[in-house]
Every structure is written in structure tokens, then in C-alpha cells.
Amino acid sequence: MNKTVSDIASLKIVSPPVTLREIALERMRDAIISGLFAPGQRLVERTLCDQLGVSRSVIREVIRHLQAEGLVDIAKQGPVVASMDWHGARQIYDIRAALESSAVADCARAADIETKDKLRLVLDELDQNSRRNEPPTVLDVTTRFYEIIFAAAGHDIAWEIVSRLNSRISRLRVMTLSTTNRSVSGPAQLREIFAAIERNDPDAAAKACREHIAAAARLAESLLQKED
Amino acid sequence: MNKTVSDIASLKIVSPPVTLREIALERMRDAIISGLFAPGQRLVERTLCDQLGVSRSVIREVIRHLQAEGLVDIAKQGPVVASMDWHGARQIYDIRAALESSAVADCARAADIETKDKLRLVLDELDQNSRRNEPPTVLDVTTRFYEIIFAAAGHDIAWEIVSRLNSRISRLRVMTLSTTNRSVSGPAQLREIFAAIERNDPDAAAKACREHIAAAARLAESLLQKED
DNA sequence: CTCGATCATATGGTATACCATGATACCATC
DNA sequence: GATGGTATCATGGTATACCATATGATCGAG
């Protein structure tokens, strides 16, 4: 891996081939994540064709993709929006704890000035939005925070997995983030993770990260049981 | 949840709707995993139609699914079999170490007589096959061993992730398992994990599991670098 | 001889048509 | 009135047709 190669690699055209499928995929995923399509709701192909204004081929391929992502289940009479019980959510929080703490630790090992600056910037942004109590934006910024961490740690496959898992518990995340307690403690915990990264302390960073997720999981559990 | 309910639940028809898509998906996945389709090879839709004897709709939906699974990349002129470099493989081994050691620990906490019996049975089978040096079967049995562990630990989502990751490094796994050293040390390490589970010792089980995977990763690294 | 332009073909993207199956509602018969 | 059968319709599965584009080859001009 010499300089020339990386220079050439950086020349790669990053044009996202904006195909109908890609657009429809994003729309559908957003619709499911945002709760516009409720869990358990049937996804009738022809209806979706009308709603999205595309043909069935597109819809079907999108559904296949979402099925593989775990956002859609195939019942016996067709695809439905996957629903999430506490057993599944608990597992997802556990997996996140494992993967995110590992990424955070590796990030703390490898973090340079540049990475730290980027993280600090995102955290400042989070503080501002948090004061205004805007859940969707907070979720966005939190995502960016972790995205930087996973990238700095070189854990791009783990990031892919975590992103996918997060979309499966997105409703829970929105609920936990909009809890008033959380809007105070959440940023504080992220700051703690950042502080450990800043002084390149992997163990402390991993520990803070695990606590952060454990707190979110506890909150999610109470909310989920209240919902029943 | 009383007895009658579970009895009634067990009556549920478990017929897997054997659709052309499902068959084609399995075939294609096997073909990629087994290396019949080499990494980087173009997957031409119409060619696959002829080879599998199905229509393009089926092939395309299957490709979407495999794309979401990470077995297929979409290049600018169409889908190709995803290839795996050491950077990616390393990450996958790390993720496996995290998820499998966690599952093994939870399994050690929860394991009852029945689970232990099932694990012992699989290990005996592994010993027999290992002596005959049959790599594909060894891989199969190893997979079953972990499947039992993840099921006993209640980590079914993590199992899904691990299965998918394993298919992405299947070639590496075949190579590492067919190494003579490994056919001796591999079963021994699984035995060690099992011993820890049998005496319900989560920490020892997790430790043995991490070592098992670290050994496989080292072997994979040397093989991968030799290949270049 | 080389460079370029144009045409042909291969390939993926999209839409639509047809078929098999399963669900539901209504009707007839016991 | 209840039960069983039948017909209709909704829905997913499959195949195919059409279009846009990119790639490669061939032919002509400089």
C-alpha cells in the first residue's frame, strides 16, 4: 500500500448511482424507522407501488433488501413490518455494548488530534441541540459521534452491523432520547467517553461506553414494559 | 404461558414455503461460499438465469438479498462476488470474538443437563470426523456446536450476525480448518470451551473462546498473506 | 499506422402481464 | 340456524418485454 495507490483510490468517483431502487429503499427504510409504517403492518406490494409511484419489481427488490436487514418479516401471506419485543431489544443492546465498547477502545488507542477535534465539534453541536430538546436531531448527532469513532477505530464492518441494529430499535431510541432524564445524562455520558478517548485511555472509554448503553437499555426496558 | 397454550403453539404448521427464490438464494449462497463463484467474479444476471433455470426477477431479488448480506458487491457495471482482504477478515474475527465469547459466557451461566448432553454429542462427532480429516464436515459440526451455544444463551440475533459473517470468511475458514495443525488443536480448544460450560464457569469459557478465535485469526492471517 | 467516430451488442433498470394460491363472503342444504 | 361448499377477489410468484446506457469492435480518415 504505497502513496500512489491511495492517491489513485482517492480519485474514485463517489457518484451514488441514484437508481429508483435506491431511492425507494431509503424512503421505505425511513418510513419503517420513523414509525410511519407501524410494526406488524402488512406491506402490500401493489399498494406500495401506488404510494411510491414505482413498479412492483422495484418494490419487491426493496422488500428483499429490508428483509435481509431484519426490518421486514415475511409472514405466510406476505411481508410485514418487523416488530421488536424486549427479548430482541435486550439482545441488540448487548451486541451494541460489545461492539461499541470495542470500537471506542480501539479509537482511544488510535485517536489523533484530528479525530479528537471532530468529536469535540459534534459534542458541542449535541449540547446546543440538547438544550432545545429536539430528539430526532439528537439521535442524528449521536449517530455521527459514533460514526466518527468507528471510522477512527477502523471498524467499518462493525459499524455497518451497529447501524443496522440501531434501525431495528429506532423507535426505542427515539423514546429513550426524548425522556427528560436522558437529555441531561446522555450528553454527559458521551462527554465521559470523549474524555477517555482524549487522554487515550481505552479501558476507561470502554467502561464509560458500556455504562452509556446499559443506561439506555434500562430506560428502554421500562418504556417497553410500560407500553404493554 | 400454560401447558395447553404451548401444546397448541407446537401444532403450528412449520412448512417453509419452498419458493423458487428461496431455492435460488440457497444455491447462490452456497456457490459463493464454496468458492464456485470466485471473489471478484462478475454475476451476470442473464447468465445466472440460464445456469439456474429461473427468470431474471428471481435472480435479481436473490442478488438484492445477497447484497444486503454482504456476499455481493454492486460495482458500477453490476454485481460481483464480494472479496475479502485481511483488514476486513481481521474485523470479522474481532467481532466474532466479542459475540461468541459473550454467548459462550451466557451459555455457561444458563446451561442445563440437556444442553450439555447435546454439546457433548456434537463434540464426539467432531472427533470422529476430525480423524478422517474431512474439512467441510468439520466446519459443519463446528457450526452446529456454536449454534447450540447461541441458542442456549438466547442470543439468536447475535447468531444471525455471526452466521452471516462466517459466510463472508468461509473460504478462510475452510483453509484454516484444513491446516493439519488446526485439525488437532481445533477440537481441543472446543473441548476446553465445553469443559468450562460443563462446570458453569462463564469467565473461563469466554477466555477459551477468545483464544480459539485468536488462533483461527492468526492462521487466517498467515494464509491470506501467503496467498498474495 | 494510429486515432477517432459510429454502430452493434451486452447488460442492467423498469414496467407489465399472467398464473397459482389462499382468504373471505355468500349461498345452499341438512 | 349451523355447517360446508363454491365463487370471487386479493396477493404474491414468475416470466417477459422494453428501454437506456456503456463497452467494445470495426471502419474510415488523417
From TrEMBL, chains A, B:
Keyword check for Transcription regulation: yes
GO molecular function, one term: DNA-binding transcription factor activity
Highest taxon, organism lineage: Bacteria
Entries under CDD domains matching the protein: WHTH_GntR (cd07377)
Ranges where the HTH gntR-type domain occurs: 18-84
Pfam entry (one): GntR
Keyword Glycoprotein included in the entry's annotation: no
Gene3D superfamilies: GntR ligand-binding domain-like (1.20.120.530), Winged helix-like DNA-binding domain superfamily/Winged helix DNA-binding domain (1.10.10.10)
Keywords: DNA-binding, Transcription, Transcription regulation
PROSITE patterns: HTH_GNTR
PANTHER family: GLUCONATE OPERON TRANSCRIPTIONAL REPRESSOR (PTHR43537:SF24), TRANSCRIPTIONAL REGULATOR, GNTR FAMILY (PTHR43537)
Name of the protein described by the UniProt record: GntR family transcriptional regulator
Source species: Rhizobium setariae
